Amino acid sequence: MATIKMQENGDMTAKETYNPTQNGTAHRRPDYGGNPLAHVASTDSARLPAFGGEIQPGLYRPIENRKFGNPAPLGLSAVAVTLFILSLICLHTKGVHSPNIVVAGAFAYGGFVQVLAGMWEYAIGNTFGGTAFASYGGFWLSYAITLTPGGFEIVSTLQEGGKAQFAYSFGFFLMAWFILTFLLLLCTLRSTVAMFLLFFFLDLTYLLLGVGYLQADSNGAPQEAAIKAGGVFGLLTAFFSWYNALAGLLDSSNSFFVIPVVHFPWSEKGREQKAITKTERATV
């Protein structure tokens, strides 16, 4: 079993990892640095597998002694409800084109409530969940501030330089969120299929909406095909956000069933299940 040896040299501390061999000698494996907490989640104290209902993309500590409830379903529901409404408007459902109705929900539920969920995620030790919810809560607050009619005059001020100036600027705004979501998506590659798809579809939503605004015509009208495609992926994002929220709400105390959570075969849980299956087949 590998051991960690710390060697101090003046003010510098070097970490070296040794892998013992059968004859007692040791091979040195270089440590290239990085996140010093990178291996904390793989220790014996972390036993629960990745779970979208807790917005946990990897192994995490048991929750028996946790003083707070699970804030993930609240944050996930805030994402789902606000994005669901905006996506229907992007698709021009029932002839509705103006996103003004989203402003109230973006301020209250998608924004303020989701930021609270993010802070509560930090309180229970979930850095990923806190970063995701607080960030997207900030997105919805920013969205609402931008589109508040007559309030901050952001749209009218930008359009003074040309009708397309707001569309291009909003496209830059959306592409920045596409990049952030891609970074969060990378953290879900060893989680569950539902959690990965949530961030995957959200990333595509930002990308398509951003492209739609960056390809606006001279009158500032976004490219309709890209906006509608973004609306479709927005609806898929809302569905998987609700799915993960429901997974975190349902248990034996309030339901006769729980919804399935599928882990990737290369995740910790997937490899564990594969090893169990292999052992069962070997004993038959």
Annotate the secondary structure layout:
Layout: E1 3-9, E2 12-20, E3 26-29, H1 72-90, H2 100-123, H3 127-147, H4 154-159, H5 165-186, H6 193-214, H7 224-249, H8 268-283
Low-confidence segments: 1-22
One letter per element, helices H and strands E, the order comes to EEEHHHHHHHH
Per DSSP E runs of 2 or more residues, the count of β-strands stands at 3
Residues in β-strands, percent = 5-15%
Shape field: elongated
Spatial arrangement of strands, main beta sheet: 1-2-3
- Rounded average pLDDT: 83
Fraction of residues in H or I helices: 40-55%
The separation of the N and C termini measures: 31 Å
Largest sheet: 3 strands, antiparallel
Find the structural class using helix and strand composition: mainly alpha
* Tally of contiguous helical segments: 8
Oligomer, anyone?
A: single chain
Determine Rg (CA atoms, Å): 23 Å
